[in-house]
UniProtKB/TrEMBL annotation:
It holds the Pfam family Glycos_transf_1. This is Uncharacterized protein. GO terms for molecular function: glycosyltransferase activity. PANTHER family: SULFOQUINOVOSYL TRANSFERASE SQD2.
Length: 529
């Protein structure tokens, strides 16, 4: 997608629900070290412990919530599944009954999945070990009387959303969808490396896939009762493309139990020492899945051309794993910086904050973020940050010069070269001016708590739940289970046909670029741990 497809935000607008949720939480200035864990005085004690506690189903009973998810366990670090886990736990903590519905994962063990998980038949996406695509291939899926919920929350990128639409039509269950993926950038991950380098291929796919995909998801979203997007730019993007249902801008929450814990041991020291590098040198870090859409290859090039030559002790650490890890290692060797580009592989979620807090700066080059979980985590930890403006999730989180540095990514080869040089200079400036970096980090931690604390995000989600149920009520849905069987089967066939067709195509597409090795198991937490 071109940068002009999503308007730059400048002064970012905040919708009313988000403003009210943020205004309800006030923090005193941070105490203690800006990098050693923040302990701002919180006003949570004056608020409901859990905003979902005020919600109820029929006759005042607890809510029954279906959560449609692309994962029924946490196979690897993934922003959407971590947020699904947080929502599941928040709902169940206050007595509601949340049921996770997603693809059957043959590698999952019982202790990795929430109790009562409904695992649908699935096929693997070969590009991503650990990812499975749900399909309606067993008879129990078709039984409308099996499903009894007060609301369906569809946090999915797949056509599993068709199941939510079917439930809405068959049973009158309100449906709240979430846009979790930048669709126009997603197809590139599935292309083999050589094919991805051919400009004509991207031109053809851009014309043949982008518009139909956008029309498909606009139609799907408009059959629900609301759409959650993760940034203001995406609200405008989907509204301009025809989404007519209410759109709620709700950022993702940063779990305090993980990112407010005491500062742990320095994870860089042993990595640097085993390479014979100075542990006192500037440590630049980037975290996330190793895929082309995340642009770590651009970051490696920026480091090699604009940072490493000017600071012989600087290092770049890439935290994470993915199908492009081997290609990134090869690129670092080609550019002569293999010794100074450190690849950790996947690390436990519980340890990631130490990589942020012990770093000099967090560097983020991705232009495909609907939100950018790793960015919000780094900001929460007070890590000075340099990023490219994307008009979406990154731009919504950074006010350049206040809580980070946000740079124009450039369009075209010459402009990108200039942008890369500016990015490298900005990173070096932070390393050379610790006081300026500390000011950015302190503001970053404060603003992240105002936007992404669990109490703020849960309040906005609770409001969206109420709004979706009101929208469904005003729409006057007449459940098809009350009508002729023939009409029920016709509607079932219509929705599940497109679900199977789309998923089958994606399954075949995944064979173009199968991953070289499976992901290690047992690194990330379970849903209930």
């Amino acid at each position: 997608m071109t940068m002009d497809a999503i308007r730059p935000l400048g002064e970012h607008r905040i919708d009313r629900a988000q403003h009210e949720a943020i205004a309800s939480v006030r923090h005193a200035p941070s105490t203690g070290s800006a990098r050693g864990g923040h302990s701002p005085a919180r006003a949570q004690a004056a608020l409901p412990e859990n905003p979902f506690a005020a919600l109820s189903g029929a006759n005042g009973r607890p809510l029954k919530v279906a959560i449609l998810s692309d994962f029924t366990r946490i196979p690897y670090a993934n922003g959407a599944v971590f947020q699904t886990r947080a929502l599941y736990r928040a709902l169940n903590t206050c007595g509601h009954q949340a049921t996770l519905i997603g693809p059957r994962d043959p590698d999952a063990s019982a202790d990795e999945m929430p109790p009562g998980t409904v695992a649908l038949p699935s096929v693997p996406l070969r590009t991503y070990p650990g990812v499975h695509l749900p399909m309606p291939l067993e008879s129990f899926v078709f039984d409308p009387m099996r499903w009894d919920f007060d609301i369906c929350f569809a946090q999915t990128t797949t056509l599993l959303v068709e199941f939510g639409i079917w439930l809405r039509k068959m049973r009158g269950i309100p449906l709240l969808c979430v846009n979790t993926t930048h669709l126009a950038a997603a197809y590139d991950v599935l292309l083999p490396e050589r094919v991805s380098r051919i400009g004509a291929v991207h031109t053809v796919l851009h014309k043949t896939l982008r518009a139909p995909m956008e029309r498909l998801f606009v139609d799907l979203y408009n059959q629900g009762d609301g759409l959650v997007v993760l940034s203001e730019g995406l609200r405008d993007y989907w509204r301009e493309r025809g989404v007519a249902v209410p759109i709620h801008v709700i950022p993702r929450m940063v779990p305090e139990d993980v990112f407010d814990r005491p500062l742990g041991p320095d994870p860089y020291a042993p990595l640097l020492e085993e390479r014979g590098l100075d542990v006192r040198g500037p440590r630049f870090v980037c975290a996330g899945r190793h895929t082309r859409e995340k642009s770590q290859h651009r970051l490696i090039r920026i480091f090699a051309e604009h940072i490493a030559p000017h600071h012989p002790q600087a290092t770049l650490t890439l935290v994470g794993d993915g199908p492009d890890s081997a290609a990134y290692a090869a690129l670092a060797r080609e550019l002569g910086v293999a010794r100074r580009v450190i690849m950790t592989g996947e690390v436990p979620y519980s340890r990631i904050s130490d990589y942020y807090r012990h770093a000099t700066a967090f560097l983020h080059a991705s232009l495909s973020e609907t939100f950018g979980n790793v960015l919000s985590e780094a900001l929460w930890c007070g890590t000075p940050t340099v990023a490219f403006a994307d008009g979406m999730g990154v731009s919504s989180q950074i006010q350049s010069g206040y809580n980070g540095l946000l740079l124009d990514p450039g369009r075209g080869a010459l402009a990108e070269d200039r942008a890369n040089a500016a990015f490298g200079n900005a990173a070096l400036a932070l390393a050379r001016d610790p006081q300026a970096a500390a000011r950015l980090g302190s503001a970053a931690a404060q603003r992240a708590r105002e936007r992404s604390s669990p109490i703020v995000v849960q309040r906005m989600l609770a409001n969206a739940f109420v709004n979706a149920r009101e929208h469904a009520r005003e729409a006057g849905i007449r459940p098809l289970v009350e009508g002729p069987k023939a009409l029920q089967w016709l509607e079932t066939f219509r929705h599940f046909r497109s679900w199977v067709g789309f998923t089958g195509g994606l399954f075949a597409f995944g064979h173009l670029r199968p991953a070289a090795a499976p992901r290690p198991k047992g690194i990330q937490p379970s849903f209930c741990a």
